[in-house]
Design brief:
By secondary structure, the protein is an alpha/beta fold. It starts with 6 loop residues before the first strand and ends with a helix. The strands form two sheets. Strands 1-9-8-5-2-3 form a six-stranded parallel β-sheet. A three-stranded antiparallel β-sheet has the order 4-7-6. It has one domain: 3-Layer(aba) Sandwich (Rossmann fold). The chain is built from eight helices and nine strands. Residues 15-246 form the Glucosamine/galactosamine-6-phosphate isomerase domain.
Length: 260
């Protein structure tokens, strides 16, 4: 099967506020592009600080200019807890973003929180495959996996993305679209997650990283640093089919700057 890596761009900003402003323009511009090209915009969210970094999208001018009716929302990973639980990525996104813009509820794909981790993963994969069959999601010509327009990702201090952790087997899953984990090293332990073949089939990926606590791992992934345990961080495996864009504030990029 043919493989191809897209472009990678690293953007550094003076503050987290500047990151939020740039991320809003980037996302709104992509929304316009994909809606003009194919009539919809499929967006995959993550948890952590990402939703807060998206806060400018629910303000003017974007709140009124983006065609929210054409958005489809998914999650790159989710904690297997009730959707109204404090640990739920759905609740985080709903409170901070989705409740403030008119995306049709039928276009928002939360997990089935009544299922076990394995059941929730199986259900989510089946629902994604249904969207492929109904032509909402195309398949990548490169990988053969479903191709989302934009994935908005964060990264943990250990370099994990989604719920793909350095020492867990899920990071090596190459066949399925969605897998599950019951012993996540970061609580809560039960989660489901897209696999790397799905993540890396996205047209565009934004890695949104802010804060000094992530400076070391940013240097490991993008700079000349080496992981202390010798295990390559999962974030080093992220690549988009069109472009992977890193959004870094000054604090997150601080070690990277000294190693260049």
């Amino acid at each position: 099967m043919a493989t191809q890596k897209g472009k990678k761009t690293v953007l550094k900003f003076d503050s987290e506020e500047d990151v939020a402003n740039a991320l809003a323009k980037y996302t709104a511009d992509l929304s316009d592009k994909f809606i003009k090209d194919k009539g919809s915009f499929t967006v995959v969210l993550s948890g952590g600080t990402l939703i807060d970094s998206m806060r400018k999208l629910v303000e003017k001018p974007y709140k009124d200019s983006v065609d929210w009716s054409k958005w489809w929302i998914f999650w790159v990973d989710e904690r297997v807890v009730p959707l109204d639980h404090g640990d739920s990525n759905y609740k985080l996104a709903s409170d901070g973003f989705l409740s403030k813009v008119p995306i049709p509820s039928s276009n928002i794909y939360a997990i089935n929180d009544k299922e076990s981790p394995e059941g929730a993963a199986t259900d989510y994969e089946a629902r994604v495959k249904q969207l492929v069959e109904s032509k909402v999601l195309p398949l990548s010509a490169i990988s053969g996996f479903p191709k989302f327009d934009l994935m908005l990702l964060g990264m943990g201090p250990d370099g994990h993305v989604a719920s793909l952790f350095p020492t867990r087997s899920q990071r090596h899953e190459k066949e399925g679209l969605v897998t599950f984990i019951t012993d996540s090293p970061k609580p809560p332990p039960p989660r489901i997650t897209f696999t790397f073949p799905v993540i890396n089939s996205a047209s565009e990926i934004a890695m949104v990283i802010t804060g000094a606590e992530l400076a070391n791992i940013v240097d490991v992934v993008l700079g000349s640093g080496l992981a202390a345990d010798g295990i390559p961080p999962p974030a080093t495996e992220v690549s988009a089919e069109e472009e992977l864009t890193w959004f870094l504030d000054k604090d997150a990029a601080s070690k990277l700057e000294t190693s260049e």
